[in-house]
Amino acid sequence: MNHWEPLVLIVSGPSGSGKSTLVQKILELPCTTASVSCTTRPPRQTENKGKWYNFVTEAEFQRMVAQGEFLEYAQVFGKNWYGTPRKFVEQARAEQKDLVLEIDVQGALQAKRNLPDAVAIFVLPPSAADLERRIRERGQDSEEEIHRRLQRARDEMLNYRSYDFSVINDDLERAVREVQAIVLALRCRVVRNENRINEILKTFGG
Fold first, then answer.
1. What one-character-per-residue DSSP string does 83-126 give?
2. Domain residues of the chain, as ranges?
3. Which CATH class is domain 8-35+97-203?
């Protein structure tokens, strides 16, 4: 049985930085679980309800806001709403699993204020040109949307000092090793393992 307080890991970065791939690699570690965000945007063809997002109406979303059900929420590009339900924090604690939140920068800053003990990891592209290439390769955005995403990425990256760790995603294998190493190192903190350490001390008569 585990005797530690689960971590809350916030992973965010500009759209196209590769944070979703890195989150999936964190979730390959044992004793991890992910939250599922709510959004008012329509699902894409490749998305299933409850796996990537829970897709809700704007009326339902606003009801959840009014009832204080979100850890963080925001309207993105003045259109669709996104939010992280608080219930996943309680659920992760009950299951003794580390919770991974994949949210945008605006939401990450909110979540960090509401959960000061959460650990925030900032995923960065190696350059603006590389980020633009990744966004274009997805083939989902108009020229206007691409320009807006690049401008927003610049503004988001100015918040890097609000994060605890940074991972520059210029080499995927190295970036994966880094995010997993961050999680494993956090799990080794004395404060996290104090109960277990005290149990071991008892076996020495201490």
1. EEETHHHHHHHHHT-EEEEE--HHHHHHHHHH-TT-EEEEEE-S
2. 8-35+97-203
3. alpha beta
